[in-house]
């Protein structure tokens, strides 16, 4: 009896740790687009609301867990329906490597689809959690992922589901916070097709109509290059200028603008799956840095 009693907590801890590890395997490629930037926006909201240090830490930790579940639902649903495609485009994913079974992933998805909105309700952001679940259903179950317009809308509307929730976990939304949300959502909708440049072989194999396949790679690169090139003007006008002229806003303006120009050059000049993968990672990191900058520009 003593052995059973003492081993039970260890068994529970081992099970929890195993599930955390499995969840990380599923979400790790998406962390720069979800957990990291959205948690930065929670920090911005906590700073704006002038929360006490202890309260701010608790709010940020709660937000990080929320966005872990947020992206976990997406990753599970997306990877369950895309195993064969991932064998070509993303062979390191857990369902391809055997680190998780499809049956196990489906059970985890069922659990997350219950836990995520319940947790969102506890945090006061249920409507945004339900919007995200609806988008996930449309994307993975009703064909949005198979057409470039649906894919782009999924990302843009997904930011509208993501960032208001991040802000409202800490405090009420403000017009300036909405300006950031709208700017980033529109920007992402227009430019997210950069992710499809790296996956053309797999997309053709499953007959997915992404922008590079529909418009052609050359035209897509031209459009994306122009979009990233005009990015600095939009960044300055919509995000930085309203915060006033301070050394930190000027420095952020220059860094984000220069980063956008770098992306324009990479899209135009550096081609091939490896270069396009790196370019897309830089886009995700740009998004994270922009939201990290909101911590001091939205005070």
Describe the structure in your own words:
By secondary structure, this protein is mainly alpha-helical. It has one domain (9-297). Helix content is 80%, strand content 0%. It is built from 15 helices and no strands. Helix 1 crosses helix 3 (53-81) and helix 9 runs antiparallel to helix 13 (231-240). The relative contact order is 0.11. The model has no long low-confidence stretch (mean pLDDT 92).
Could you tell me how far the N terminus lies from the C terminus, measured between alpha carbons in angstroms? 57 Å
Portion of residues in beta strands equals under 5%
Helix content: over 70%
Quaternary state of the chains:
single chain
Key descriptive features of the protein:
15 helices, mainly alpha, globular, 299 residues, single chain
Short description:
The chain has 299 residues and is mostly helical. The protein has one domain (9-297). It has helices at residues 2-27, 35-48, 53-81, 83-89, 94-97, 102-123, 126-141, 148-168, 175-191, 200-205, 211-215, 217-229, 231-240, 247-269, 273-297.
Question: Secondary structure elements and their pairing?
Answer:
Elements: H1 2-27, H2 35-48, H3 53-81, H4 83-89, H5 94-97, H6 102-123, H7 126-141, H8 148-168, H9 175-191, H10 200-205, H11 211-215, H12 217-229, H13 231-240, H14 247-269, H15 273-297
């Amino acid at each position: 009896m003593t052995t059973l009693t003492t081993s039970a907590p260890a068994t529970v801890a081992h099970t929890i740790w195993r599930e955390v590890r499995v969840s990380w395997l599923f979400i790790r490629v998406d962390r720069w687009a979800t957990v990291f930037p959205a948690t930065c926006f929670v920090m911005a909201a906590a700073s704006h609301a002038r929360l006490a240090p202890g309260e701010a830490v608790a709010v940020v930790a709660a937000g990080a867990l929320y966005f872990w579940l947020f992206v976990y639902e997406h990753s599970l649903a997306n990877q369950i329906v895309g195993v064969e495609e991932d064998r070509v485009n993303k062979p390191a994913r857990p369902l391809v490597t055997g680190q998780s079974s499809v049956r196990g992933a489906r059970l985890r998805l069922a659990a997350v689809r219950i836990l995520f909105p319940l947790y969102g309700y506890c945090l006061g952001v249920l409507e945004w959690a339900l919007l995200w679940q609806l988008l996930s259903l449309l994307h993975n179950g009703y064909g949005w992922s198979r057409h470039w317009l649906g894919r782009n809308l999924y990302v843009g509307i997904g930011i509208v589901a993501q960032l208001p929730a991040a802000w409202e976990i800490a405090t009420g939304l403000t017009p300036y916070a909405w300006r950031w949300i709208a700017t980033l959502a529109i920007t992402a909708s227009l430019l997210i097709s950069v992710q499809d440049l790296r996956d053309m072989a797999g997309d053709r194999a499953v007959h997915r109509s992404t922008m590079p396949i529909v418009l052609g790679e050359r035209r897509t690169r031209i459009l994306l290059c122009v979009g990233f090139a005009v990015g600095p003007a939009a960044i300055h006008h919509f995000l930085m200028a309203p915060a006033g002229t301070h050394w930190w806003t000027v420095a952020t303006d220059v860094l984000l603008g220069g980063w956008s120009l770098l992306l324009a050059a990479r899209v135009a000049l550096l081609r091939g799956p490896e270069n396009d993968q790196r370019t897309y990672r830089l886009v995700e990191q740009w998004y994270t840095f922009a939201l990290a900058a909101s911590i001091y520009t939205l005070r």
